[in-house]
Specification:
mainly alpha; two-stranded antiparallel ribbon; 6 helices; 4 strands; elongated
Length: 182
Amino acid sequence: MLTAAQPQTRFCPQCCRDRPLDQFRHRVRNTEQRHHVCNACHAERERQRRQATKLKAQRRALGMIASRISRATQSSEIEYFFRRALSSFGGPDQLADAMHAYMEKLRKEHPTSPKLGSMYAAFMRMELYLAENLAVRFHGITDQQLEQYIFPRLLERLEANPDIAVDFFRDLGWRIAPPANA
């Protein structure tokens, strides 16, 4: 029970406002102990935490799918993982947006990361698979968009680490001959 000596408001250090006590969650049910953060600030913090957890899980799933697609040896494997990715992300638009956001994050934070090469390889393999088997372009990307966005970044990455290019083209079944002057 509140007595006349107890304050009817409490200061929330996150929003820096005095708020009524009923806007603070009970620390223990059926007691007068309250949390130090108001309900609105707590809800916002929980929303941010859930969003961060969701993004972390999406990035983990993208990395796993990209890794498996880039290592796939048969088109049936590529199709399986591609379909799995589509169902996980809710369709081609969401998958492409998630891949693009993850690739941009990797490119900014870890430009020499092998994950970035794996993402590019997976993206290119999905594109090749769709072009050959479904006669559809992934996420409606035109050849011009591929040339403007993906190819320059892919070439930068491949020039920085030519072993990725050799492995990628060997995975595609191409023969890599040593340079003539070697």
